[in-house]
Amino acid sequence: MAHSSRKARVQLKGFGIYLKQVRIGKGLKTQRDLVLKLAERSMVITQALIAQYEMGYVADPDPEILRLISEICAVSHEEMITRLVAEKYGINFGQSKSANLYSVPSAEMLLSGSALQITISLIQK
Questions:
Q1: pTM, two decimal places
Q2: Secondary structure of 41-79 in the HEC alphabet?
Q3: How far apart are alpha carbons 41 and 65 in whole angstroms?
Q4: Which letter, b or e, does each residue of 11-26 get, where b requires 16 or more Cβ atoms within 10 Å of its Cβ?
Q5: Do 36 and 81 form a contact (C-beta atoms < 8 A)?
Q6: Beta carbons within 10 angstroms of residue 65's beta carbon
Q7: Which tens digit of pLDDT belongs to each residue from 49-58?
Q8: What DSSP character marks residue 103?
Q9: Which domain holds residue 75?
Q10: How many domains does the chain fold into?
């Protein structure tokens, strides 16, 4: 029974996998490595929170944490937010049904209309 309740908690699994790939791609082998980099920028959070982000358990990730992760990992903040919006709101940016979230094109190619408004509102929070 506990297993099924855990599965129900996953909100943003694909986005969590993306965050983990970004972290590892930057050479930060552990979540603790990322926590230490964030602390260098005056963002004090726990390894447990990073784990929750990477497992997709945080439905509304903190925009400032995401901005700092994108800077530390040298990835586009717009790309990161676009991936979050795509998964959270089920927006299909013209992908085929078989396309996965990890192949979302760049934010510049995607953002238009309502997707842009959603992204702007998330960034401004």
A1: 0.70
A2: CCCCCCHHHHHHHHHCCCCCCCHHHHHHHHHHCCCCHHH
A3: 10
A4: bbebbbbbbbebbeeb
A5: no
A6: 16
A7: 999 999 999 9
A8: G
A9: 2-124
A10: 1
